[in-house]
Structure formats: C-alpha cells, structure tokens
C-alpha cells in the first residue's frame, strides 16, 4: 500500500496490508513522495532546525506526501511517537556524543536505518543540519541503498581553524554525491558551495519561514519604559559576550531602559555576573529556557529586538520579532542582511560599540515616534516567509530529485575518489564498499520481504485521516506526545 | 452478558438437590458453594442459610436446582424441581442437569420477571476445587488489610470476589462427614480433626510458655537498655560492632515469636512462621559449627595459626612499605616526602606487632569463648568473625585513613588553586563558580602552591592507592560475611517450603483450562490455582534484615574513592527501619 | 471450530497459528514455533566438544573434556527449561479475562491471567527491538486510580514475535470479543 515504485528496492508490497482500497485517492496533481527527514535535532530539543523540520513536514503532509522523521532518543523519549496529523517520529536509541549529536561510526546505524527505510518504503531521504552526525550517516546509507538524497544546511562555517577544516572535508565527502542541497540564504549557499566544493547548480536557496499567525503584535502588553528583548540560546555563537558588554553601557545611559533575556546556555553565568556587578536586578530579567509557544508572549513585551549573533545562516528570531512588530537591531553577519528589508532592521558591526550605536538610534527613533506601528510591520513581514511557500519550493526540489538517477556503486566510487582528494577519497571509497558489503549481509540476514510494511499514517492513503472500520490502531504514546 | 456458574468439582457426583451459593449481580456470576440434598424441609434450609449469612456476612442463597440423573429419567422429578423455584425465589433461577453417563451438562438460567427468549443468556460453567480455593491466599491481597478491621466487608471485584466468598463461608463447611444436621449438604469436607493428645497439650502449653519467655526477653532487653550502655564508649562500640547489631536483631525476632498477641492477618502469621524457621535453621547451623569447633582440639590449632598469620601480614606490609619507599614500579617519587610517609607507617607496623605479641598468650581463651557464641546461632558467630577481622586489620584501616586524608587535602587544594589559576572562585553562598579578579601576589603564591602540590601529588596518590586497595580487600571480605548473615536472616524458609509442598496455598492468580466441548452445550472451564513463582515468594515474604544495603552505587563509590572520601563497610543503623 | 494457518515471524522463521473457537465468547490462539532441530543441536554440541578437545590437546588435562560434557548437558537442560518456548497461547474469554500461556520445550508452563475488569484495550503497537522496528500485540491495563490512564502494557506473543499479518488476524478476533464485552457492560 505504501509502495509506489521509484525506489531502488524492487520487492513487492506485502499483500496482506492492502485493506484501503487502492487507487481511489491517487489523483494528486503531482506525484507524491515518501520522505524521511533525518536529523539529530528534533523536539523536545528546541531551536531553528527543529521547528523547520516540524513545520516543513506538516506542510508536506498537507500537500499529500508521506513524511516520517528519524532522530535519536531524548532521555526517556525513545521508540515511535506520533505528532499532529500522524507525523511519525522514530526516536532511535543511539548514543549521544556531544551537543545532542550522536556518535558516528558510519556503520552502526545502518541496520536500524535500513529497516526503517524499507518498512516505510522511503524514496527520498532529506537530511538536516551539517552538525548532525546522524544526518550524514543517513545520507551515506541512503546512497548505498540507492535512494535519492536531499540535504539542508542550516549553518555557516569558517574556513580557518582546524575544526572547520575537518568539518568541511567531511561535508565535501558527504555531499559529493548527494542529489540536491538546500540552503537557507544566499550567503549560506555561497558558504556551502565553497566549503563542500559543490556544483552550484544543485544547490537551491529556500529560506526558513515563521508562522505569522503565531507571532502577532500586541502593543498593550508593552510598558511605558523602553524594553529591549533578546531571545537566543546563551552560547558563544550567539554573541552573549557582546550582550554582556552592551547591557551596562546602555543601562547607564538610559535610566528607563529594561532588558528581557530569554534562553538558557553555558554563558548565562556571564549575564548573571553583569547583573550583580551593576545592580541591575530590577532592569535585566533573565527568563531562562523558553518554550517555543512562550516566545511570542515574551517578544510582545518589548519595543526593540536585539540579535548579537556572530554567525548565522538565516536568523529566524529576527523574522519572528519583526512579525511581532518590534524594531530589530542585529549584527551584520552571514545571511542576516538578506532576511529583512532595510527599513525594518538596523544592521551593525559585531562589536559592542557599533551595536550600542545601533540601539541608540533605535531608541531615538522610538522616542521621536518615527517608528512604524507594530501592526504595519506585522502586515509587511507576514507576506515574506510562509511555510506553505517553503513546502512548495521544497516539493519542486523533490520532484526534480526523483527524476534523477542515483549513482550506481562504481560511479559513486569514481566520484568519491576524483572529487574528495586522493587520501580522503580512497578512504571513504573503501568505507563505502564496506558499507555496501554490510548492507548485503543485512539483506541476507533479514531479506526485505520479511520486513513488514509500516501502516501509513500520513500521505494520500494515510491511516490517520481514514478511520478503519475495526482496525483502529494507536500508539500508546500518541496521546501523550501531541505536543509541539 | 455471559452468566458464569462456579461449581465445585467435589459436588459433581452429588445427588440431586438444591444449589446453595452466592449470586454476584455486577459480574453476573453464581458461586455455588454446596448442594443440599433431598429430602429436606424448606424452612430448615432457610434457617441454615440465615445462620450462615449472619456468620459470614455474605449473601448466601438458594440459586437453583441440581439434577443428577443416575437412574432412568423421571418426569416427576423435573416438575418437582421446577416447583421449587416458587419456594426459594431467586433471580435468575439456575437449572443444572447432569445426564447419566454423559460428560456434558445442561445448564439453563431462567428469569422469572422478564421472560426473555432462550439463548439470550449464555451460561459458562467453571469448575473449581473448593479446598484449594478455600485455603489459598491471593497475591497481592485484593482487600487492603486496613479494610478488614471495619465491620463492612466490602467485597472485592473480579475473581477475588469468588475467593472472598468461599473463604468467608467457612461456616458452611464446618460440619464434617460424621455430622448429622437437619439438612444434608454436599461440599468439600475435611477428613475430621484427629484430636491428638500431644497437639492438644502443645496448644494448651504454648500460651504460658510464651508468656514466660516473653517476660524473660523483656528482662533481657531492659538490661540492654539500662543506662550503663548509653554511656559514650559503650554505645559507640555497640553501634559499630556487627555482633551487637546481630544480637539486637535476633532479640527482636525472639520477641516477635513469643509475643502473646495473635497474628491479625495471614501476612503477619507467615512472617512469624518464617522467623521461627529462620531462627531454628540458624541455631542448628550454629550447633553444627560448635560441635565441629570443639571436637579434636581445633581451637588450639586455630589459635596457633592465627598469631603467625597476623605476624605474616604485618611483615608483608613492611615489605610493601619498603618497596614503596624505593622506586615502586620504576616511578620516581619525591624522595623526602616518600621517606617521611614510609617511616611514619613503618613505626605504626612496629607498634602493631608488639601489640599482637602482647596479646598472643590470651588468644586461645578468647577463641574458646568466642566459639561458645556459636550456640546462639551461626549468624552471631559469623558477625563475631567479621568483628575479629576488623580488629585484626586495624592497622590497614589506620593507613587507609591517613592516606585518604592526605590525598583529599591535596585534591581539594589543587582544585581550588586551579580555579584561582583560571581567574575564578567558588561562591559558597550561591553554590556556583564566579569569575574573580585576583591581584598579583595572590596569583603568585597560588601558582607556587599549585606547582608544589601538583608535584607532590603522585607520591601521596601512590600511598593512597596501595592502602585503598588493601582496605577494599578487607571491606570485601567483611561484605561477603555480612551478605551470608543477611541471607540467613532474611530467607523466608517457611514460605518456600509451603510453596514447594502445597503450591496452591500461595496463589498468584488463577488459570483456566477449556474442557472438552460440544456444540449447543454450555462451555466448561476448569479453574486452577496459579502458584506464586519462587522469586516472588522470596520477594514478598523476605524478612526485614538489619540493613546491609550498599550505601553507594558503584559509580558513586568510584567517585568517592577518587576524591579521597572515606568509605565504611559499617552498616547504617538508620536503614534498619525499612 | 479449529483451523491452522501458517505465518512467519519477524526473522522469516515459520510459525503456525491455531485458532480454536470454542464458543462465541471463548477463543484460543496458539502460536507454535518449530521445535528444536536436531541439526542445530548437533552443531552446537560438536562445536563445544571440538573446542574442548582443542583445549585438551593444548593443556593435556582431561578435566576439560568432562567439564565440556557437563556444560553441554547443563546448557541444554537450561535452554530447554528456561529459554526455548515452543508454544504461546492466548485464551480470551468474554466477561472473564485473557489468559496467556507459554509452554517451554521441557514442558514447563507459565501462565498469566488478566481479568477482564482490568483490561482497557488490546492494541497493536510498534517498538524498536534490537536492530529492528517491529509490530507487537499488547494488552493495555487500566489504571485503578485514574480511569482513563494506562497502568501497564503487557506484550503478547513475546517470544514468537509474529509478523503484522498474523497480529492483525488475532487482533480482529480479540476486538470482536472486546466489542461484545463493551456492548453488554454498558447496557446490561
């Protein structure tokens, strides 16, 4: 029932499962795909990648595709869960190594991932984030299994330090035979093309989006005094050190200025120390970790949104803030200048001095009343980025990818050797061969015909929308985990 | 809903008559308890039932008729049985019928008020062994114990209701085979009590004996509780010596055994029995040990070997220290510190050896007296052994403490100086590491101290490591002994024996077997008792031991060892309560 | 009524599902695995003894050989008595309960009976098992404190691990009985 051809796995669908009348719903305008999103980062972890995957999946389900998500287990949350609209999430019990990224040996995840790809009849693997080891593993295995692959890069990287050099090399290997790559901004595309030595033709730019209905302005929640809001994880990359320089300077200059800082992270201690040293307990509020649904309530309390990121591919936070009608002050790094038009954002250099100037300018505008009304900003921003648009564009990528052929093993090895340099190329070619042998071994151990086809939850013949007459099935956990 | 009729297997061959039992309306099940035979006078049956109802507080009634056709079918009997429904009104009225020679029964349930079409009510016959159900005890108990006290025995739901009914109606079964009552009943019958004179005597005598012994025990415990033992050194010793701990534990056991209070519920009774079994086993093993020890002058032999062993251990320790004072395993240590530490420990060993030699003439007597303690039980002897080991390895303990203290001092110093190194400090009020700016002198001194401590650390760490290993060895031996003692103390021997010989007494639940079936006849099931698995018997009836729970998990133990905190094998007294 | 159908387990092995319909309110499902094959038994025994003989030729201690014999015997006994489950039975009786029996190769039987009052539902769930994602049938038990909660999940056919088609077969039958039960308990 879930099998629609096009994949490399040529085995018949199990006949016992065709309870839903076939062909009745096969009238979509384009062909539908079975997509598997793979990333280490997913809910309950919080961040841009996570919400991107979730929203994109939801919109793709709406458009009639079958989508599943594969990620690693978060604490007690392991196994299989269902989210809204029957979005199935596999939390695989893999060991987390560092920063929520799994440890990789390039082989140990193959049995489980292969099992999932086969039982869900996946045709396109869509990996997210270059920090995620699992995403790269999945790409590698998918290519071995002959499935189409798409990769979305969410972050920017340098070229100078040792770690970047290493990561870039790995990215080159990982992406050299990936069918298509998606970047979130033009800066990010440039960066990725350079880092992974890619052909720019196969790199598309599809920006992130925000749900504008979630981020509506509410001017009555604001206080009389000027409030600056910062919402980000408190880590080095997000420029928390800059923030700790800005707070005392501005607080001394403007006695009626308040800060609200949402987010958690290892650099929180710096902000606490600044607050204690300058006796700013009543003016700087540290909210700690925020749930995604609470972000809007925090944003609407402020007038100005400050973003101090040191590197950013596409900053969702400033779009969310602008959608709530806040004046945005941000560093001019990465893809940020592309995100908003110039009249909605004040761009500064990533230094304390420049940021202070930018904030002062914003405060002056606010006091003089030359800022546009929050409602107007919201109406402008609303039209910029929507998930439906993102999903449509991603769908086009899928359509294109599904037409392409996956490189056969010999060509893949050739490409690895020619593309990734002599030493790395040969090593990874060897690993690819091993992976292929391992796959053959696994196919011998449990042939594809033995693997049960999963009951479709989403997609055109999804079980979620069709109530079976007497075969209602529900995951024990599906009621619990319907949280976003 | 399917009507379920629970029918005792012992009544299967009874003559025709009336079904006496209880109707549970919420589950639509009928629990047949007995069959009353013809001839009877209805008023007498009613009287009997009223009496049983009063005794058991269970709604026992006549449920229907039972017809066993041994001889040729008689039409008149059938009519007569139908007529009985008018005498004993019950809703629904059951009609059980066993054909002659056939294994399949017929069973019908008729409603008087609302005559519904036949076949609407399906009937399921469930056979059960009345004796096993009566004697068995469900786990976990369906009715919480505190509800037993109340006068209203709210019956538990489900199958527990069946067990409950059978157990409460014991009054119905009291009459045995030889009794001649006004009503002839057929049910499970005990074989009659063989009134043995010995058993009767024991029963009579047990009361005063228990009283006497309980008095004695309270005297002993009063002596134990008197103020002399509350003084500092004695109370301290008492809390540290495992022998005292064990004695106290046993005293409590004895007090429980000889208490004149009746056990309130089966769990308490079982606990008492288990305690008796455990004490008896313990004493028996102890006497065996005693006879082995005191036969053929083994004590003298033991004493002769003990002193040389202690000497030998001390000598080995000396060698070890000398090895450490040189270049152990090719490590280069700080020479001065090494010498100081080594000499210090050597002097200790010297002291120890002289102490042992001072003791040597008395060892035999001490051992002889210690051997006598085995008659109090094997556990007491084992605890004494553990204490003796602790005393004989006191020097190792001392070394370990010195080593650990030194090591801990250094580790703490190093960690705080490392923070100073990075420009941080520990904020004790907020329990976190703050950044802090130090001036030049502080940094200079701090760095200097840090270097010194860092270079001296390997020497101390080596001493610490060696003595910790020794200490761990001793602790492991003591731990093993304590485990053995705990095993004897807490093993529920009586329950295990019961499970072995009478598996139905401890029931984990029931299981059903589908009996041979013929279309059109009611389904017949056989209900059997599912005995409790052995592991759950042990788990449920384990006697509370005096708490040898490991204080730390392995991870935390390693962490404590690394940071140089002291580890003790001594039992925590606070754990004893649970 | 009794019929037997052949299915496969998640590793491709053969399973036989026997269904016995005693009455509309009582059904039994019996999944039996193939018995211990002589071939695998011989293979394991030979390997152990060959290894023992190899050791024996190295250290020339005849204790090893006798130990090997003991180990194989004990291992076989333990395997038959504690590990190898030949047959798993699910007996569902309307308004009484569900009984699960697993019979070991040695004849030992372990039985669990769950009263109908405690059963909330029977569902098919998915789980990650070893390096596989499998479907399994499980019984959800009611939480005595909270009426809508689930206190425990009891998996059925734990050792046989049949595939989805077999599970659906059993599931439908069980649901029919549960539906009867629900219908009668709501309007008696």
Shape of chain A: elongated
Number of helices of chain B: 19
DSSP, total strands of chain B: 13
Please list the strands of the largest sheet of chain A in the order they lie side by side.
3-4-2-1-7-8-9-10
Binned, the helix content of chain A reads 25-40%
Please bin the fraction of helical residues of chain B: 55-70%
Question: What profile does the largest beta sheet of chain A have?
Answer: 8 strands, mixed
Content-based structural category of chain A: alpha/beta
Total domain modules of chain B: 2
Query: Which regions of chain B are unreliable across 5 or more consecutive residues at pLDDT < 50?
Result: 143-154, 570-578
Largest sheet data of chain B = 11 strands, mixed
Poorly predicted runs of chain A are 1-29, 467-484
Derived structural class of chain B: alpha/beta
Roughly what fraction of the amino acids of chain B lie in strands?
5-15%
User: Which architecture of the largest domain in chain A would the CATH scheme give at its second level?
Assistant: 3-Layer(aba) Sandwich
Termini Cα gap of chain A: 29 Å
Keywords (chain A): Endoplasmic reticulum, Glycosyltransferase, GPI-anchor biosynthesis, Lipid metabolism, Membrane, Phosphoprotein, Transferase, Transmembrane, Transmembrane helix
GO biological process, one term (chain A): cellular response to leukemia inhibitory factor
Pathway (chain A): Glycolipid biosynthesis; glycosylphosphatidylinositol-anchor biosynthesis
Protein name (chain A): Phosphatidylinositol N-acetylglucosaminyltransferase subunit A
Q: How would you describe what is shown here?
A:
- Chain A: InterPro entries: Glyco_trans_1, PIG-A/GPI3, PIGA_GPI_anchor_biosynthesis.
- Chain A: The chain crosses the membrane at residues 423-442.
- Chain A: Its EC number is 2.4.1.198.
- The complex is a heterotrimer of chains A (484), B (578) and C (188).
- Chain A has 484 residues and is α/β, with parallel strands linked by helices.
- Chain A is 38% helix and 16% strand.
- Chain A is built from 15 helices and 16 strands.
- In chain A, helix 6 (240-253) packs parallel to helix 7 (268-277).
- Residues 1-29 and 467-484 of chain A have low confidence and may be disordered.
- Chain B is an alpha/beta fold and 578 residues long.
- Chain B folds into 2 domains: 3-186, Cytidine Deaminase, domain 2 (3-Layer(aba) Sandwich), CATH 3.40.140; 293-491 and 543-577, no CATH class.
- Chain B is 55% helix and 14% strand.
- Chain B has helices at residues 42-56, 75-87, 130-135, 146-149, 159-168, 170-173, 197-224, 232-240, 242-258, 266-294, 298-325, 335-359, 363-372, 378-392, 394-421, 440-490, 493-501, 534-541, 554-563; strands spanning 3-8, 17-24, 29-37, 60-68, 93-98, 105-110, 123-128, 137-138, 185-186, 424-427, 432-435, 506-514, 523-531.
- In chain B, strand 12 (506-514) and strand 13 (523-531) form a beta hairpin.
- The longest helix of chain B has 51 residues, at 440-490.
- The model of chain B is unreliable at 143-154 and 570-578 (pLDDT under 50).
- Chain C folds into 2 domains: 2-36 and 84-186; 38-80, no CATH class.
- Chain C has helices at 38-59, 63-83, 164-186, and strands at residues 2-8, 14-23, 26-32, 85-93, 97-104, 109-115, 119-129, 132-142, 150-155.
- In chain C, the strands form 2 sheets. A 6-stranded antiparallel β-sheet of chain C has the order 1-2-3-4-5-6. A 3-stranded antiparallel β-sheet of chain C has the order 7-8-9, covered by helices on one side.
- The chains are: A alpha/beta (484), B alpha/beta (578), C alpha+beta (188).
- At the A-C interface, helix 2 of A face strand 7, strand 8 and helix 3 of C.
């Amino acid at each position: 029932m879930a099998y629609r051809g096009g994949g490399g796995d040529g085995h018949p669908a199990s006949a016992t499962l065709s309870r839903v009348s076939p062909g009745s719903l096969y009238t979509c305008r384009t062909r539908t795909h079975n997509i598997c999103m793979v990333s280490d980062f997913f809910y309950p972890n919080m961040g841009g990648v996570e919400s991107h995957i979730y929203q994109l999946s939801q919109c793709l389900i709406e458009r009639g595709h079958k989508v599943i998500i594969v990620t690693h287990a978060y604490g007690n949350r392991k196994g299989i869960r269902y989210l809204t609209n029957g979005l199935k999430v596999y939390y695989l019990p893999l060991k987390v190594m560092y920063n929520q990224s799994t440890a990789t040996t390039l082989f140990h995840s193959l049995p489980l991932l292969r099992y999932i790809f086969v039982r869900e009849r996946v045709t396109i693997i869509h990996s997210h984030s270059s920090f995620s080891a699992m995403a790269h593993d999945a790409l590698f295995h998918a290519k071995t299994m002959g499935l189409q692959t798409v990769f979305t890069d969410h972050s920017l990287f340098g070229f100078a330090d040792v770690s970047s050099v290493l990561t870039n090399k790995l990215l080159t290997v990982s992406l050299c035979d990936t069918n298509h790559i998606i970047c979130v901004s033009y800066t990010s595309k440039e960066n990725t093309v350079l880092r992974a030595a890619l052909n720019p033709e196969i790199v598309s730019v599809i920006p992130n989006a925000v749900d504008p209905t979630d981020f509506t302005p509410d001017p009555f929640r604001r206080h009389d005094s000027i409030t600056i809001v910062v919402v980000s994880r408190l880590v080095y990359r997000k420029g928390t050190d800059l923030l700790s320089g800005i707070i005392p300077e501005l607080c001394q200059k403007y006695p009626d200025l308040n800060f609200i800082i949402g987010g958690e992270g290892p650099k929180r201690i710096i902000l606490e120390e600044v607050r204690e040293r300058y006796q700013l307990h009543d003016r700087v509020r540290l909210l700690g970790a925020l749930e995604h649904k609470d972000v809007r309530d925090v944003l609407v309390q402020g007038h100005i949104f400050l973003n101090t990121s040191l590197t950013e591919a596409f900053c969702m936070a400033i779009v969310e803030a602008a959608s709530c009608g806040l004046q945005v002050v941000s560093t001019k790094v990465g893809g940020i200048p592309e995100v908003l038009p110039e009249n909605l954002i004040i761009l500064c250099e990533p230094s304390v001095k420049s940021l202070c100037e930018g904030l002062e300018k914003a405060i002056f505008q606010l006091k003089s009343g030359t800022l546009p009304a929050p409602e107007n900003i919201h109406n402008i921003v609303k039209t910029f980025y929507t998930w439906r648009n993102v999903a449509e564009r991603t769908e086009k990528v899928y359509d294109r990818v599904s037409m392409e052929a996956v490189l056969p093993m010999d060509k893949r090895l050739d490409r690895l050797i020619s593309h990734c340099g002599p030493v790395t190329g040969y090593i990874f070619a060897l690993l690819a061969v091993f992976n292929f042998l391992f796959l053959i071994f696994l196919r011998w151990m449990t042939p594809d015909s033995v693997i049960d086809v999963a009951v479709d939850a989403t997609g055109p013949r999804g079980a979620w929308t069709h109530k079976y007459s007497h075969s209602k099935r529900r995951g024990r956990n599906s009621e619990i985990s319907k949280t976003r | 809903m399917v009507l379920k009729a629970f029918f005792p297997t012992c009544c299967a061959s009874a003559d025709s008559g009336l079904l006496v039992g209880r109707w549970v309306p919420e589950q639509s099940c009928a629990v047949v308890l007995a069959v009353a035979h013809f001839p009877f006078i209805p008023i007498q049956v009613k009287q009997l039932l009223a009496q049983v109802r009063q005794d058991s507080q269970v709604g026992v009634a006549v449920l229907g008729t039972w017809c066993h056709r041994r001889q040729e079918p008689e039409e008149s009997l059938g009519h007569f049985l139908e007529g009985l429904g008018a005498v004993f009104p019950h809703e629904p009225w059951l009609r059980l019928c066993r054909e002659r020679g056939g294994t399949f029964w017929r069973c019908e349930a008729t409603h008087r008020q609302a005559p519904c079409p036949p076949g609407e009510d399906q009937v399921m016959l469930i056979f059960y062994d009345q004796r096993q159900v009566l004697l068995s005890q469900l786990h976990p108990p369906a009715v919480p114990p505190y509800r037993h006290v109340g006068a209203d025995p709210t019956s538990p739901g489900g199958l527990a209701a069946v067990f409950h009914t059978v157990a409460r109606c014991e009054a119905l079964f009291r009459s045995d085979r030889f009794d001649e009552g006004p009503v002839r009943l057929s049910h499970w019958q005990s074989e009659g009590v063989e009134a043995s004179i010995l058993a009767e005597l024991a029963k009579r005598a047990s009361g005063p004996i228990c009283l006497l012994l309980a008095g004695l025990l309270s005297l002993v415990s009063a002596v134990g509780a008197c103020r002399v033992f509350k003084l500092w050194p004695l109370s301290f010793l008492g809390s540290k010596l495992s022998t005292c701990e064990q004695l106290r534990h046993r005293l409590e056991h004895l007090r429980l055994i000889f208490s004149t209070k009746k056990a309130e519920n089966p769990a308490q009774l079982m606990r008492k029995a288990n305690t008796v079994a455990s004490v008896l086993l313990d004493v028996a093993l102890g006497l065996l040990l005693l006879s082995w020890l005191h036969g053929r002058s083994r004590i003298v032999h033991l004493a002769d070997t003990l002193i040389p062993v202690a000497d030998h251990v001390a000598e080995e320790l000396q060698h070890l220290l000398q090895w450490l004072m040189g270049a152990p395993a090719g490590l280069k240590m700080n020479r001065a510190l090494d010498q100081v530490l080594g000499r210090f420990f050597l002097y200790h060993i010297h002291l120890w050896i002289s102490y042992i030699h001072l003791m040597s003439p008395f060892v035999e007597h001490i051992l002889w007296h210690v051997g006598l303690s085995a008659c109090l039980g094997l556990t007491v002897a084992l605890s004494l052994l553990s204490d003796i080991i602790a005393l004989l390895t006191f020097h190792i303990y001392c070394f370990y403490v010195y080593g650990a203290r030194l090591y801990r001092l250094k580790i703490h110093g190093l960690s705080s100086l490392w923070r100073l190194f990075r420009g941080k400090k520990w904020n004790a009020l907020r329990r976190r590491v703050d950044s802090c700016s130090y001036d030049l002198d502080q940094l200079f001194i701090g760095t200097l101290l840090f270097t010194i401590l860092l270079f001296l650390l390997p020497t101390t760490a080596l001493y610490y490591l060696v003595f910790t290993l020794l200490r761990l060895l001793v602790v492991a031996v003591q731990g093993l002994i304590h485990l053995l003692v705990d095993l004897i103390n807490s093993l529920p021997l009586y329950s295990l024996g019961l499970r072995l010989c009478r598996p139905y007494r401890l029931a984990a639940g029931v299981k059903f077997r589908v009996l041979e079936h013929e279309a059109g006849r009611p389904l017949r099931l056989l209900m059997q008792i599912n005995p409790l698995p052995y592991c759950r018997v042990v788990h449920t009836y384990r006697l509370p031991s005096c708490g040898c729970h490991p204080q730390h998990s392995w991870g935390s133990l390693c962490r404590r060892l690394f940071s140089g905190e002291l580890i003790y094998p001594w039992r925590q007294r606070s754990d004893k309560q649970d | 009524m009794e019929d037997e159908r052949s299915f496969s387990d998640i590793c491709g092995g053969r399973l036989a599902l026997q269904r016995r319909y005693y009455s509309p309110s009582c059904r039994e499902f019996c999944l039996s695995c193939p018995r211990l094959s002589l071939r695998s038994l011989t293979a394991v025994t030979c390997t152990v003894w060959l290894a023992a003989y190899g050791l024996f030729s190295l250290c020339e201690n005849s204790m090893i050989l006798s130990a090997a014999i003991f180990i194989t015997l004990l291992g076989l006994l333990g395997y038959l008595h504690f590990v190898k489950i030949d047959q798993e039975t699910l007996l569902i009786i309307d308004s009484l309960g569900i009984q699960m029996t697993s019979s070991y190769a040695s004849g030992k039987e372990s039985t669990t009976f769950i009263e109908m009052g405690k059963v909330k539902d029977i569902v098919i769930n998915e789980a990650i098992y070893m390096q596989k994602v499998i479907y399994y049938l499980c019984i959800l038990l009611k939480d005595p404190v909270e009426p809508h909660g689930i206190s425990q999940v009891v998996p059925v056919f734990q050792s046989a691990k049949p595939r989805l088609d077999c599970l659906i077969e059993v599931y439908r039958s069980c649901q029919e009985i549960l539906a009867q039960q629900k219908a009668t308990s709501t309007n008696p």
